[in-house]
Design a protein that fits this description.
CATH class of the largest domain: Mainly Alpha
CATH topology of the largest domain: Transferase(Phosphotransferase), domain 1
Shape: globular
Distance between the termini: 18 Å
Number of helices: 7
CATH superfamily of the largest domain: Transferase(Phosphotransferase) domain 1
Length: 295
Amino acid sequence: MKAGKQIAGFTILAEIGRGAASKLFAVQDPKTKQVWALKHVIKKQPKDQRFLDQTETESEVGQKLDHPNIRKIYKLIRGKRMLKTVEMFLLMELIDGVSIEQYPVPTLDLVLDVWTQVADGLSHMHGCGFVHADMKPNNIILTDGGTAKIIDLGQSCPVGTVKERIQGTPDYIAPEQVHRREITEKTDIYNLGASIYWSITGQHIPTALPKGDSLLSGAQDDHLIERPVSPSELLSGTPELLSTLVLQCVEVDVGKRPDSMHDVVDMLRDIHEALTLHNRGLLVQGAEPRERACG
């Protein structure tokens, strides 16, 4: 749809993104002139029902959260045909920024700042009884003002959920997601640790979900997951406390991970404060300072 056209009662300003069965628009309310983001999800065939389900989940969870580092969700509009929902419109906060997967943050100082904000947002989610369950760099938007925003709550679920199928992103997925065990706060801790690891090193940790045809299945196979190389070995100057924290977050054994996301926030803040006093300009792997475009 082109700019100026109407969709769900809003005026399209621009298309700003696309997904497997969705489009994301910047829109304006013609009466109040308020600007929003509007996700339009269409069910074209029966298998697309999962995209509608994820949109409904994102709405239900998002409207129960209120944190500056989580994208605000305002309203879900259903489009029906023959009494059946065939499309959905999700009205959300419009964020002027870019994914940190597209534009990696260039210094350890900024890495710590961004992921501390993210961990604080996740801690809020956990306090409300939910797990994000798909934390990764592509689901973090960084604004020009330096605010990190968690997006895409489509795979979120109540703490303790056991999902019927494997959901997650292979490079960041926790073993319990692959083996379809309970999804808990520590699942987000694992996903977060894997994301911080990538932000520091430019590399992904080994996970229980290879990209090839094979798949480790069952709790008895956890010990076969390769342990990642310490970030401090891959990037000289990485604080040992940060390397230790990241490796603790991605422990295969859930019991060896930090007790809570709140604890992770506190540790990240302490490490950040120490690093600020030591060296603010250490570059991370695979991330050079660059001019950022808005998306």
